[in-house]
Structure formats: C-alpha cells, structure tokens
Amino acid sequence: MTDQPTSASDLLREIRRLRDDLDTLTAKQTVELVEHTARIKTEILDEWTQHNTGPDTKKVYDDVQSWVEGWFVHAYARSSAGWGHWCPEWWRHREAVSRLTALWQSWEAAQKNTATGMAHWYVMYADPIFGHLTASHGVFASCKDEHIRLLPSLATITVEAGYPHTP
Ligand SMILES: [Zn+2]
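# zinc ion complex -> structure
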C-alpha cells in the first residue's frame, strides 16, 4: 500500500513523479510508434516494388552471357553443315555483343507480353538478327565452329572541318 500524500508539498512531489512517469511512457511509445511506422513503410515499399517493377528490373536472365548460354544457343540449335557462320567465342566480336545484348533485352520484354510477345520477337528481332550475325558476309564470316579472327574495322578518315553536313 502506497503512502497517501500528507501535505501540499507531498502532493506536488507526487504530481511531478506521475508527470515524469507519463513523459517516460510517452517517449517510449513514441519511439515504438516511429519504429513500427518505419517497418510498415518498408514492407509496403517492398511489396510495391515486387508488383510494380518494369521489364528491366525483373529479368529472367541477369546478363547477355547467361541468356546466350542458357537460352539462345539452345533455341537456335543448328547442325554445323549447310548454314551460315556462328562463333562459339561470340563475346570476342563487339558487334555480336551489341546485337545479342539488344536481342536479349527485347527477349526479356517479350516475356512480359503473353499475347504476341514471342511471335513478334522472332519475326521482328530474333530471325533478322540471327540471320545477320550468321550470314556469309556477317559478323562471324571469318569464324565457323571455332573462333578464327575478328573482322577489321571499316576504314575512316578523320572528319574535315565543316563536316558532316546537317540535313
Ligand atoms: Zn569469332
């Protein structure tokens, strides 16, 4: 049993103690409320991110290398005779890397389009790019079944003053 205040000064002291207790409880609850709000904010943000990411953030493959090795070379399997040129060291050819990267990125986007995505992708991107890469005059023209050499860059002469003309 607590002692009852016996005087005005005891009463004031008791009021101050209760006010301090209340301040302590309020501060503790404020901290808990701030922490709880931060947790909920993080959960909501994570959930939103999971459901609202664009095609570039939810990829099937992490990079062009894993896509070529994991999907492309199997989807475009060919016997070694009677068709164009493919270089197993495609990554040595800058143009091939550039074209295959663009093809991989469009493939990732096509995965999201369940209506016409892959059909559109084959006709508009994959077949033309594959045909260009493997053509007898294409990127891999010097290679077949193994890497032989890179094609020389196109010739260029340093641009003269006043050029190029703008249309
Ligand atoms: Zn090669």
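# post-check
The chain has a mean pLDDT of 81.
Helices lie at 8-51, 64-75, 94-112, 117-134.
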